[in-house]
Design goal:
alpha+beta, single chain
Length: about 240
Amino acid sequence: MSRRSLRHAVATTASLVLLATGVTVGLGASVAQASPACALSQSVTDDWAGSWGLPYTVSKEVVGDGTVAPGQTVTYLTKVSGSGALVNQIRDFHPAGFQLVKARLNVKWLVGGQSWEDVTGTAVIANNSVVAKGTGWTTAGGGVIALETTYKVPDDAVVGSKLDSGAGTNIVLAAGDWNINPMGVCVTVRQPNPVEAGAGSLEDMGFGSVNTGSGQVFGSLTDPQGSMSNVIGGILGNVIGNMS
């Protein structure tokens, strides 16, 4: 083995070891990426020939404490930043069975500054991923492209399981298409707390969703046009209907 090949092998091994511990590293576009240990956040920085040696970073985190009960929601935040090139895609890879509830995009425009935009209806949803696309958002001047995704966890998610996820982007440079999946950003499925368990029981009885406040009966309590007799009638109707 030549000295150059040996140096490359040592550098590659060192990069993979650092990635496995959740440390931000530069890997090079042609180097395979090992799946790191589970954490609430991960960050990977890379530079390659097409980026003229300038670094770009993809990071992802779980919003909150990283735990979720079956049937509840979890939110991720994915970010792309770098050295000035445009980004026209940002991707979130979610665990199988997760259902998108909401997606928001925050980007820095060349004109108009940086702001949040709801992209739930325009994001591309396929193959356990949510992709926001655009004509190009800048990373110049510290610009960060951020995608916030909220999902409903399957009702049959196994308590105690750790569910990994990933992220990706397309930077408008040669060889700038970049996926890191899995990335080691994990959520742990836990037992429902008393409030969540109680909400599930009420939904099973036909009282609607307590979490959203959108159930037929409980929604009437907040309707200024509703009446208490309608509320009582709705409750009795649900109870009798579920007993029959």
